[in-house]
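User: Quick sanity check before I run a bigger batch. Here is a single chain. Can you write out its predicted 3D structure?
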Amino acid sequence: EGEYSVNENCTRQCQCGAKGQMVCSALSCGEDQVCKIQDGQRGCYPASTAICHIYGDPHYSTFDGKLHHFQGSCNYTVVTGCDNSSVGFSVTTRNKHRGSQSWTALNSVALSLEGLHIALREHKAVYINGALVSLPASPAPGVTVSLSGSYVRVSTKLGLQLQFSGDHELLVKVSEKYKGKLCGLCGTYTGSQQDDFMRPDGVVVPDFNDFGASWMVPDDEWPCDPAISPPASCSPAEEEAANKQCSILTHLGGPFQPCHAVLPPQTYFESCVYDQCATGGSTEQLCNDLGAYAAACAEAGVALGDWSAGTVCAPPTDCNFACTFDTDFCGWVQADYSSIDWIRNKGPTPTPNTGPSSDHTTG
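Assistant: Done. Predicted structure follows.
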């Protein structure tokens, strides 16, 4: 008496009654629940989440944790439904070359869902159905776009969340209810890495360049060259230098150690070394990679605080005014494309009436 069983898809629950009779009733999992076995018992349980992390030049850590370094310089589908799986959304990204024909980085993100097209572009500019918008915005019931720390965040009632840094980094978080239903550069989310490199035709291939190119999305307004030129290999001396630069990620007693037990840093270390080789030891790229691991740790529930203190990534305490604002932007970017305010990438503005020649009003 009291024992119960649930059928395979959690639509029916049967319980043994007081007189030994089986009493059955209909069962339906809630919107934020999935049918699965937990502690040996099948039933409706809260859905967990999975994250696909895209960062650097670029690196893709799939929903199932597989790492690849696809360097295509076009538009690509990173998440969509497989075959006949209607998930109600599609996420595409655009990559562009950054000072070299042998490596690229994520440039912008597009989300299509329920009649909406949300474009996340450089410097956190957001376009909804082609129109530039100010944040926060709620373009549809259950859909919000807002600033969250250093990211633009898109949250949906569908169990999908995007976080875009405005430059090279994107986190895609999906509900467990999509397990086994997704395809694209973020993989299949089946619980196995073996089928992550699945092309749109359903064929699983071993080469990530073949896999990545198969998810290219044609765009008449964005001419691109689909050919890929892999970065040159590091020399032994360069690889040694790259390992030294990136070792802060794995260093015991370093700023990232509190996260090691929750999110092992090895794939981020591997990506960091790859980037240092590809970019000739770029400090900017190093800091991007360290920041990507910090962001992933934050998503995993580990706040690292000011991890950049004492590193080459620490922001300067003083502004550098060794350039002329009348001739160049000196590292400034427009903070809000709907206003005339500008901000500098690093450091405070010490006096009013400083900024690019196109804005000598607010500083």
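The two ends are 75 Å apart (CA to CA).

User: Great, the batch can go ahead then.
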